[in-house]
Structure formats: C-alpha cells, structure tokens
Amino acid sequence: MGSQPPASRAALEPLATLDPAALAGVPTSSPLTVRAAALSADLLYLGTGGGKLLLFSLLDPSTPEFLRLLPIGATLPVSAILPLPSVARLLVLADGLLLLADPLLSRPVRRLGSLRNVAAVAARRGDSADPASASCSIAVSVGKKLLRVDLTLQDGDELDVQTREVAIVEGVKTLAWVDDSVFVATATGYSLFSSTTGQGVDIFTLPESSGHPRVKPLSGGDEVMLLVDNVGVVVDTFGQPVGSSLVFNTTPDCIAEVYPYVIVTGNSKVDVYRRRNGAYLQTIPVARTGQGVLIVASDDDGIGTELVVIATAYKVFCYHKVSAVEQIKASLRRKNYKEAISLLEEFESDGEISEDMISFVHAQLGFLLLFDLRFEDAVNHFLLSETMQPSEIFPFIMPDPNRWSDLVPRKRYWGLHPPPKPLEEVIDDGLITIQQALFLKKAGVDTVVDEDFLSNPPSRADLLELAIRNIIRYLCASRMKDLPSPEMEGVDTFLMYLYRALDLVDGMEKLASSQNSCVVDELESLLDDSGHLRTLAFLYGSKGMCSKALSIWRILARNYSAGLWKDLSENGSSGTSVDKRSGEEIAAIEAANILKTSSDEDLVLEHLGWVADIDQELAIAVLTSEMRESQLSPEKVVAAIDAEKVVIHQRYLQWLIEDQSCDDPHYHTSYALSLAKSVIEAVRMESKYRGKDNREIDSDAQKIYLLREKLQLFLQASDLYDPEDILDVIAESELWLEKAILYRKMGQENIVLQILALKLEDSEAAEQYCAEIGRDDAYIQLLGLYLDPQNGKEPMFTAAVRLLHNHGESLDPMQVLERLSADMPLQLASDTILRMLRARVHHHRQGQIVHNLSRATNLDARLTRLEERSRHVQLTDESICDSCRARLGTKLFVMYPDDSVVCYRCYRNQQGDSSSGRGRSSRKDVIFKQSWLVSR
C-alpha cells in the first residue's frame, strides 16, 4: 500500500484555517509555535513551545472563535494536552511537569503533585464518557516508575489526589490506558500492565531499526493500535491481535481517529485510511511551514465526533468528516457506479447509514442506471430498495396524464437524473448521448458513457425489448408486496401492457387467469384489437364477468372447429393434461371451469350444449359440479339436455340419485328407463353387426355387460321407480334377469321362479329365492316347475333331483310324491326319495324319544321334590343354627336341600337370598340326588 496514488475519494473536507497568533493578537515579534493540540466537545486547545495555552470555540466549526490565552511559563514548552471533563480539569504536560487548568483557562495553572521529569501520561479511556462520575484516573511514567493517579472532584471545586505505584518500567515513550490494561511503549517494545495488580506481560519486541513507538486507543473502548514502523497492529485489552493490521504509506508521526477513519501524519502529509480494512482513501495537502511535525487531533471519544484538527507550527486546519450520503452522492455525480456501490456496502457494514437511506440510494442508483440504458442493473437496484414504490415506474410505461398519474410520488431525489418519461424517449435520448460520445472519443475527449456501448452500439429495438423485459421483472416482483389497491391495479395493468408489447402470450394468459388487479376497461380494447381473445377471456373469467368470458370461449371453439384459426396443438401448446389437446378442446375446458362454479342456471344451460358437442365428459362435470354455491334445478337441467346425449342424461340422473340422495320417483324411473333402453339398443346393435372381428365383438360384449350390470344394480338397490314402466320397455327383450328383479319388486313370486328356473335355468338362484321367501311350499312350487315346465319344454329331472337332495328332508313327502311326474325315471329319484322318507321316519322317532325323556325327567323331579318334603329331621339340645351359631332348642327352624339348618330369624333375614346357611346357592349350585331314573 505504500506506493498507492492519492485517491479521488474525499473522506474529510476542510472547514476553516486558523492563524492562532493573529486570532490571539500576539505580535509578530514573538510568534507562536504549536506543539500540542486537543479537542473536547466544541473546544479546541493549543499548546505552544513558548509555554502558552490557547482556547478556541468551535461551536461554528467554519468560523472558529478565539476565547482565551493562558501563559503557563516561558520555559515550559507544552508537549501534551489531556482534557479531563469528569473532574472539570485540563491536564497539561509541559517540560516534564504535570499542570492542571480549568476547562475555560480562566484561572492560573497549578502543578499536580511534585512529579518531575514525566516522560508520558495517559488518561484512562472511558472516564471522560461519564462527566457525572466526578473522578478519573491517569497513568504517569516518571523515571523508572509507572504511577497511577486517581483524581476525585470534591466540594468547592477541590481535587483529591491519590497516587500509587503500579510497576517498574524504564524508557517509557508513550502510554495508553484502556479498561484495566495500561499499554506501555518503550524503545524496545510494547508491554501490558494491570492497573489494579501491577502484573505485566510483554506483548512483542520491536526491531532495533524500528521507528518511534506509538499507542493509539481506538473507538469502542476495547481495541488499541500499536505502531511498528508503518504498520498499525490492532490488539484487544489483553494484547492479543484482532482484526486486520493497517499498513500506512509512511511511518506516522501522529495518529488520530474519526470513526470509521484513521488519520495519520508523516513526511509532511496527512493520509486517511479506513479503519475496518486499512484501505487508503485520501491524502490531505498541507503546506507545512516552520519546524516540527504535523499534529493531528480529534475528540478522544472517536465515535460521534465529526471534527479533526491538523496543526503545523503556525497554522491550524479544521476538517470535518464527509457524511456517507455526500460521499456516495459525489461518486454518483461522476457516474462512478462501482465506487458508489462499494461505498454503500462499506457504510452499511460500519453502520454509518440508515436502512431508509440505503433504500434511497439503491433507488437513486436505479434511476441513474435506467437513464444510462443499463436496464438490468437498474432493476436490480430497484429490487434492493425497500422504500421505492412501484408507482415510480409508471411514468416510464405510460405518458402522463393517465389513470394512475396521481399515484406517482413526488420524491426529492438528488437531482442527478432527468424527470421520468416513457421508455422510448429514454432510449432515444440515450442513443443520442452514445452518438455524441463516439464523436468526442474520436476527438480524444473522455466521456462517462459505458465503454461497452461505445465499442458495440446497441440497436433501439434491442434496447427497448431489454428495457421492457426488466421492467416486467420488477413489476412481477412488486406483485408479491402488500400494495394499496390502486397501486396494485396499476402494477397488474401495466404488466399486461408490457407483456402485450413483446407479445409474451404465456405471460399474458398466466397473469389474466390468476388472481389479479388488472383494470378491464384499460385492457379490453387493447386485447380485442390485437386478437388476444384467449387472454381477454381469461381476464373476464378472473373478474367474474362469466358471460363475456364464455362468449369468447364459444367463439374460439367455433373458429378452431371451422379452421379459421390455427389449432393450438400445431404450435405445441398443451391443455390441462399431459396429452396435447386441440384449441377447440381447450376452449371447452376453460368454459367448463367457469361453468362449474356458476350458479346462474340460464348461463350454464345456454353454454352446456356446445361444450357437450365437444366433450360430453366436460358437460357431465359441469352439471355435477360441487363447487357452485347452489345447485341447478334438476327439472330445468333434464329438460335442457339433448335427447341424443343419452350418456349425459344418465350420468346426471345417476349423480342426482346417488350423490344428491334424490328420492323423487320420477327421476328414479327415468334413470331406470334410460338404462334399460341403452341396454336394449346395445344388444340390438351387437346382433346387427355380428360379422365384426373378435376384438370388436369382445368390446361390444364388455360394453353390454357393464350396462346390464349397472341396470341390475340399480333395479336391486332402488325401491322408488315404477317396475311396470320398466317391464313395458323390456317386455319383448331377453333381459330375463332384469325381469326377475322387477317381478320380485312387484311380489310376483311364481313368475320370478319361472324366470329363474325355466328361462335362466339357474337352479342355485331359484333355490336361494325360495329360501328368501321362507316357506316350504315355495320349494314344492319350484319342484312342480322343474317336473312340468309347460310350453313343450322337457322336464328338468336333474334340477328336481338336486332340489330334493338339498331340501327334501324339510318337505312334506306326500306333497313331493304328488308332484312327481310319471315320466320321471325311477333311478333318478329313488335314492333321493328313499333318503327323504328315512329322514322323515328318523325325525319322527327322534321326536318321540325326546318327548318320552322329557316326561321321565319331569316325573323324576316331582318324585324327588316329594321325598324332600316328606323327610324327617331330628334335632337335639346341642343342635345349633348354621348361620348365627345359636342353639335351636325349641325355636322354629328351616332346613335347606344341602342339609344345613338355620333358625327362623336367620331365614327371615335371608329371604330373597337363595344361599343356605353353609353359603351354597340353590340357584347356582344345583344339588343332584339319585332318583329312580338315575339309579336305573
């Protein structure tokens, strides 16, 4: 860094120049030579080589005011000045003596103790931060001793001074006291001593050829800079290096800090560095006259101070810190955008600039870049600005006046860019500037125009497209913000304008079909005239203007089907599914999406027809949609469905019955009739084209099977249709199972059995139906049908035998024999009839046995009861109650079946309880005694 050229950036700028001698009225015969300087709040102290103290007021830094001159002794040159505001004193080091003066130099100085040959002095950093503490401490190096001096302000403006020795150290050049640590610099190195315990530690040793050591406490109170030649090493209060070191161009003679800058003097110049990374920023030219070094001083606090003083022997220059905003503004005026961005990042990391100002700068950068035709970079900065309003972009899109002109805020930017105007004019002016710069460049004149534009001038069309695409990017990002309704309307409407300008159909349709704040009145004619009817239809739909949207979709479907428009599938456009769809299908899909949510019956039924012509499934989805607030009138819907759209009619009735739980017999009957007619038609068509290949035959058979299954399931499940109406339709058909279901609903058992047994020849189903009837005569009736089927049909002996085999045991043999036909082969029925008769006899005999056993058991129980009642019981004087254990004597007693005896009182107490005196329950624990039946 030592060879860096002077920077163009101004971190400090001059305020005023002081001639101390002239302001103090000192004659030229005895000139003043400044040897020390110090700042404290708005006061400037100067110490001279002739033993004088000068005080200046810096209330108005641009015009310093001389206040007072205080002589301290012609032979006492001032080498250091330390303001001590907490004790209302000014500490002066002059010719090895420590002197105390009041802050306004209104009284003569007094010596601090009897100390002589003081080599260095330092006030404890932080004591001055709280003036109300009324005490402070200083470290003093005298000879080989390091002393601590505590000053306490007493009543009557008197000071209490306490001195104690901290450590022994020789050759002290300078001191610094931060927190509990006293940093000591000697010619050989740096050491650290504790101000309370006096324990010391060496930090590091200086090389023999090293320059004068310097110690500078840094703002913040926990870091110190130690100078090693031209390198400033930053350490913490424990002497450990922290952060990065600062490398100066020259070896500093004096160091000061105005956060976030470090100012050093050396070799007759003043350099400014950034503290955080040590970057060189600025060289301040100072015309040094006379002998001595340049002195630089600032308020010891470092944070919050804006002033820095640079003093030569006879002149004093006041500088103040240039604000972050002014530095950035200066870079922007030069159109040095990289430097401005770097400064912004630097000040943001140092906390030197507010969040609102950061947003303001990003917006200002964006506008400058926009007028310089760097549209992508401009929008990037717009997006980084939290306070910029999207309405500030509106004038670049549509000329004033317009609907949103009043929304554009009149923000006071820095006046670095022209007023907003349409993008076309911005680009035209920018191209003119580029042409002028090309001529100037040929003439050897430097310009601020981007070199890329000069080497490769862009075309107007390319710039306009680039500008629109980036403004679109900004408006899309703005849609994510919580904007007021009028501003949101402007954002979405202008976004649609820009999409239309570049013919970005996908973007237009995505915006129009989503939730948006577009103003339809502003876009209606634009989209209609340009032929973007799909976008207009999407926009109508999103705004709830369903009738207009459906009208457009109907027109589009008609145009696609008529070939007036190129089909979307040819352009690779796809619909809502993975498979590509035609434009006609997409129009129907979008119309159906609107109709699904509409509760307007007239509107739905008006457009249902053309949607059904394109896709019947879409029409069904519209009619059966659950998304609308109130369902359509079934009566109107059924009346509006085209008679040829049988599938729609059936699916709607099915949804009405199954999903909506409709119990109107009319709709149940209509649904059953429609299904029956469809089955009959399918069977007729299948029989008409029997010459088809196997694949087509299988497909037709599957279709008929599914239709019949649906019809059969409905006929079985519903009880609300009219069976006779259905029978009238299928009377001449071969739908025997359906007929059986209908006759069963009507209670025609005989006809049902005839159909199951004779037409369908389903013996298992016929027997199951008989079981459902639950009467034996049903089986007899079925047997009669098997043996005498009528109509010239042969008897079904096998089915009859199966019936007798399964249910013969429960049938009356006489009725069975009466039904048997004389033509029935004996070998078929003999075994079955024999087994039936044997079972009949067996059941009869088994019943007799059970009857006789029951009678015997009853007789045995009666005999046992009689024996119990006639039993004799003998009691003695020793007999006791099994319950209360009392002697019975002549008391009444009761005897239980388990031979337990209880007194009558216990019996009365236990009435209702079946337990005996021994705890046996006569209900649960039954006692069996041998009787004549058991003994035999």
From TrEMBL:
UniProt-listed GO biological process terms: intracellular protein transport
Pfam families in UniProt: CNH, Vps39_1, zf-Vps39_C
UniProt repeat feature CHCR, residue ranges: 624-796
Positions of the CNH domain: 31-299
InterPro entries according to UniProt: Clathrin_H-chain/VPS_repeat, CNH_dom, Quinoprotein_ADH-like_sf, Vam6/VPS39/TRAP1, VPS39/TGF_beta_rcpt-assoc_1, VPS39/TGFA1_Znf
PANTHER family: CNH DOMAIN CONTAINING (PTHR12894), VACUOLAR SORTING PROTEIN 3 (PTHR12894:SF43)
Descriptive protein name: CNH domain-containing protein
